[in-house]
């Protein structure tokens, strides 16, 4: 036919050496948008699937089905997989442009360079990594051993109404009474009395009679240190060779010392309990818990990954701490020592330790020691440590760690909370005439996700940083009153002071919030610290002591005096 002859004639005109005819423009897949789309179908599907998975993660977080830490890990894994797939697709596909391949190779080389020069220094409470140079030195390693100008005795035997002698406050419940703080920090400004570097660690301050004690890490030494509250002057330090350090747990001790009758009790991250003379810091007695189980610090980390964190409980003539044991047992939950001699008075319980601290409670009229263990909560008779009752409480000290305290809400009710997807619970205890204990569950709900913080209760309302967001819950019903994302302070700490809540944000800010069961009312805030902060607050009288792993500070908080009087402007103070 004519058109066939025309095609033949055009081919003949080009000659036998001319090669095949050039494809029409619309068929050149590598040079047009249509071709790109046709060849990149897999790439588009990868982006669609990746975007859909990312959207699901966001939705899970919004619904509270996963916590921020899990979401961040999933997001990082997803982003890594998508980037690797994109690079592989772009550089290995047939007909890829030379520039594309060189860019892909350059990206791989850049990633190798980053991996060889950077390291993860630490992670946030939501598992966001912080990178630093591999050759950089930890801040605590730049600090010298403390030098004390004069060995003047410190008086910790004298007590005052404003003392904060133990973990979480006078009653170990995150509540301070008898102090009415001014609610407007813009007009009535807190005064920074001092700010200075401090050794690493997540230990908090405790304070008695104007002297504050904490634990810190300086290079190869773990220390208990004593400072003047209002000046920050170091009065004494007790040091020994020990160092805890992991990427996820950070550096240094994480237990808060207890002050009682002029003595200081401190548990190091590697399991050594020390009793010190509060006047000079001299050692009175010590006990190495790991030696009792013939464990090395490395073996203990296989069972208690984030270090020994419990703060000693002093009751009458006893000091009580969790013991634990090897990863696979046998275990001893609690050990009570004579507080003056260090002699063991009793042991009790058969559960591995968690990261919570023992506390004293009166339930059903019986004075007892509460112990939040790795996999159970238990009540122990104070006289001999015998287990009165127990309740299963899921957790593992190498994974989904249990940190929060059990909180007494009435004569026979106990509130439990935790992160890692475990529902908070309200327990009711009953004691029969025959002496038998019964524990029943009143409610279990996905509220109060206190990963490594605690719950404060006022007027039967529980306040807590739930996965880092401030939340209020009815204790009796478990009904959430509010959880406001404006209160997204991160995994920090709180302290209930009268009618306000002091929030130590993970960023270092201190925020004052109204203890209001109806809504979040943020009153004031100050940039108290400037680095990642997990340490608990200490309020000695109206002096707020704050610290993290690099710095410490003290603020003079303005008061309402008397509590119902108008606030006095800062200029008139």
Give descriptors for this structure:
573 residues, alpha+beta, Methylamine Dehydrogenase, Chain H, 2 domains, four-stranded antiparallel β-sheet, 7 helices, 35% strand, globular
Task: Give a structural overview.
With 573 residues, this protein is an alpha+beta fold. It has two domains: 24-133, no CATH class; 164-572, Methylamine Dehydrogenase, Chain H (7 Propeller). Helices cover 17% and strands 35% of the residues. The protein has seven helices and 37 strands. Strand 28 and strand 29 form a beta hairpin. The termini are far apart. Residues 1-20, 25-31 and 568-573 have low confidence and may be disordered.
CATH C-level name of the largest domain: Mainly Beta
Question: Order of strands in the sheet with the most strands?
Answer: 3-31-32-33-34
- Percent of residues in β-strands: 25-35%
Q: What is the CATH architecture annotation of the largest domain?
A: 7 Propeller
Distance linking N and C termini: 108 Å
Class by SSE composition: alpha+beta
Shape: globular
How is the biggest beta sheet arranged? 5 strands, mixed
The unreliable regions are 1-20, 25-31, 568-573
Structural Rg: 30 Å
What is the number of beta strands? 37
Look at the structure and name the CATH superfamily of the largest domain: YVTN repeat-like/Quinoprotein amine dehydrogenase
Count of spatially separate domains: 2
How much is the average pLDDT? 88
């Amino acid at each position: 036919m004519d058109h066939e002859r025309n095609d033949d004639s055009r081919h003949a005109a080009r000659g036998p050496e001319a090669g095949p005819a050039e494809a029409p423009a619309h068929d050149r897949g590598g040079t047009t948008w249509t071709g790109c789309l046709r060849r990149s179908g897999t790439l588009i599907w990868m982006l669609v699937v990746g975007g859909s998975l990312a959207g699901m993660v966001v939705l899970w977080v919004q619904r509270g089905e996963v916590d921020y830490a899990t979401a961040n890990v999933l997001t990082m894994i997803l982003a890594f997989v998508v980037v690797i797939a994109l690079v592989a697709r772009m550089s290995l596909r047939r007909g890829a442009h030379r520039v594309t391949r060189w860019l892909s190779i350059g990206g791989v080389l850049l990633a190798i360079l980053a991996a060889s020069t950077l390291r993860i220094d630490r992670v946030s409470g939501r598992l966001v990594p912080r990178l630093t140079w591999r050759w950089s030195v930890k801040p605590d390693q730049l600090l010298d051993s403390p030098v004390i100008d004069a060995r003047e005795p410190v008086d910790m035997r004298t007590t005052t109404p404003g003392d904060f002698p133990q973990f979480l406050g006078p009653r170990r419940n995150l509540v301070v009474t008898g102090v009415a703080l001014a609610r407007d920090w813009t007009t009535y400004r807190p005064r920074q009395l001092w700010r200075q570097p401090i050794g690493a660690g997540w230990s908090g301050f405790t304070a008695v009679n104007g002297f504050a004690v904490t634990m810190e890490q300086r290079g190869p030494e773990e220390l208990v240190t004593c400072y003047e509250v209002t000046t920050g002057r170091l009065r004494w330090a007790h040091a020994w060779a020990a160092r805890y350090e992991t990427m996820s747990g950070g550096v240094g001790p994480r237990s808060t010392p207890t002050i009682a009758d002029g003595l200081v009790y401190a548990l190091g991250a590697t399991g050594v309990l020390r009793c010190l003379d509060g006047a000079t810091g001299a050692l009175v007695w010590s006990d190495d818990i790991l030696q009792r189980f013939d464990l090395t610090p490395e073996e203990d980390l296989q069972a208690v990954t984030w270090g020994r964190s419990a703060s000693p409980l002093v009751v009458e003539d006893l000091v009580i701490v969790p013991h634990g044991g090897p990863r696979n047992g046998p275990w001893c939950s609690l050990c009570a020592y004579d507080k003056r001699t260090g002699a063991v008075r009793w042991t009790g319980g058969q559960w591995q330790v968690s990261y919570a601290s023992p506390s004293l409670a009166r339930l059903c009229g019986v004075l007892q020691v509460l112990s939040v263990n790795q996999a159970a909560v238990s009540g122990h008779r104070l006289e001999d440590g015998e287990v009165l009752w127990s309740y299963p409480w899921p957790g593992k000290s190498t994974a989904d760690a249990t940190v929060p305290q059990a909180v007494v809400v009435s004569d026979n009710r106990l509130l439990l909370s935790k992160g890692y997807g475990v529902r908070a619970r309200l327990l009711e205890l009953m004691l029969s005439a025959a002496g038998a204990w019964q524990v029943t569950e009143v409610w279990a709900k996905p509220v109060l996700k206190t990963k490594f913080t605690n719950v404060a209760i006022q007027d039967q309302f529980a306040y807590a940083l739930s996965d880092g967001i401030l939340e209020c819950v009815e204790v009796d019903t478990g009904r959430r009153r509010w959880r406001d994302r404006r209160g997204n302070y991160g995994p920090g700490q709180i302290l209930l002071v009268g009618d306000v809540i002091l929030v130590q944000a993970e960023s270092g800010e201190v925020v004052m919030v109204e203890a209001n069961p109806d809504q979040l009312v943020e009153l004031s805030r100050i940039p108290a610290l400037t680095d990642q902060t997990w340490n608990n607050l200490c309020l000695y009288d109206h002096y707020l002591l704050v610290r993290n792993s690099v710095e410490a500070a003290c603020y003079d908080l303005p008061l309402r005096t008397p509590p119902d009087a108008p606030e006095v402007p800062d200029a008139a103070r």
